[in-house]
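pipeline stage [seq->struct] | target=Galactoside-binding lectin | organism=Necator americanus | residues=104
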Amino acid sequence: MSEVIPFSWTLPAELNGFCSPQSVRFTLTPFMSAKRFNCNLRAGNEYLFHFRVDFRNASEKYSKVDVDGVHCVKFKYRPGDDPTLIDRVTVEGDCVLQRFVHRV
């Protein structure tokens, strides 16, 4: 599966947003000339989570967030953000989305 960027996936309404224990996993391949890409959890036009990777140094070979399911990052929502309102997962930028998995 290779998806065209920008990629947008709408969460099924019966899930009532994006709450624990849900998870998403991306496998992305940046273009050789990539400048940046980002992954987002969105509630309408609001970004509740925004993960952006910039390639400022062409000699850097990778960015690592999660390895074989081992937890590396915990994101705490801002006061007033409601994860039950998250309705979309998006990926944008200079990459090819090789794999996208959503688990409930």
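stage status: PASS
auto-comment: The domain at 7-58+72-103 is CATH 2.60.120.200 (Jelly Rolls). The chain has no helices and six strands.
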